[in-house]
Amino acid sequence: MQAWRVHDNGEPGEVMQCDEVDRPTPGEGQILLKVRAANINFPDALLCRGQYQVRPPLPFTPGVEICADTEDGRRVIATPVLPHGGLAEYALADASAVLPAPDALDDAESAALHIGYQTGWFGLHRRAGLQEGETLLVHAAAGGVGSAAVQLGKAAGATIIGVVGGPEKAAVARELGCDVVVDRHAEDVVAAVKEATGGRGADVIYDPVGGAAYAQSAKLVAFEGRIVVVGFASGTIPSPALNHALVKNYSIVGLHWGLYNLKDPAAILRCHETLTDLAAKGLIRPLVSERVPFAAAADAVQRVADGTTTGRLVVLPEGAGR
Predict the structure, then answer these.
(1) Quick one: pLDDT at residue 4?
(2) Which terminus of the chain has fewer Cβ atoms in its 10 Å neighbourhood, N or C?
(3) For the whole model, what pTM was predicted?
(4) Beta-carbon neighbour count of residue 190 at 10 Å?
(5) Burial 207-228 (b: 16+ CB within 10 A, else e)
């Protein structure tokens, strides 16, 4: 089979190469999956660079989120077990973690449902307790992680403020349903959000960016607000001033979705059932901006790493996907 593999750590566009390899052999508790579609995530870029919290042995195949077929013909979504990731014709996954793909979504959309939407649901509902009528600010609202949070916030009845970088991403954020869109390249984010909220700020702030975005969040969080720390796509991990959190009465909460696989796997299944229901009702639908041919996978991972994309880039093996 064909598989994209990383033999040395570095930039994805430089270190990913397409190899002809044997199909992987499942270990205990694992199953072999025929990949229908592989969604590109920022962690794929970090894996290539050797900067992710998990460092699989070289060479490895990136691709942490897929829609695939089981050997008995079920269409499922899964997070592959590295080093046999999803940017290949076949991948391995833990049998206990495989979930049914929603009938309401095609292969590319299903491949983009799992990590981003589970992260959004746990972050907004389990960690931040988002309530109907509250104001939710989403950084990088036109990106893969941010667009999921926007849709989930709208489904929960929140008012959404989306912060984006550039007019193209601003247009995408409006199409997603953001009530207010702030272009950080053209506007003062703090001033614009304060004006939009009458000086009150946002009840919940969803931050997958870190760096300067977090500094803005601390200035914009409302009384008894919650800042949800999801990731650091900017490359800069902030050091929050806890005295500031004390005097303004706000909470800083972290969200590492992967821990639920270890600590509370039943919650992941319940969340998937909720997401499947929301998709069936048309309240959420992953924003797949490009369906990428398998031959262009390395370029797709590089573009996600560079932050130049909107929504999700999903790689389709030849002859697979719809």
Answers:
(1) 98
(2) C
(3) 0.93
(4) 16
(5) bbbbbebbbbbbebbbeebbbb
Is the CB of residue 141 less than 8 Å from the CB of residue 173?
A: yes
Nearest to 41 by CA among 112, 108, 97: 112
How many residues belong to the chain? 322
Q: Do 29 and 310 contact (CB within 8 A), yes or no?
A: no
In tens, the pLDDT along 192-248 reads 999 999 999 999 999 999 999 999 999 999 999 999 999 998 889 999 999 999 999
Separation in Å, CA 206 to CA 131, 278, 303: 14, 20, 23
CA angle, 198 then 153 then 149, to 5°: 110
Q: Where are the beta strands (DSSP E) in the chain?
A: 2-6, 16-20, 30-39, 66-69, 75-78, 90-94, 99-100, 135-139, 159-164, 180-183, 202-207, 221-229, 251-254, 288-293, 312-316
Instruction: Report the alpha-carbon distance of residue 84 to residue 63 in Å, rounded.
Output: 8
Residue type, 115: I
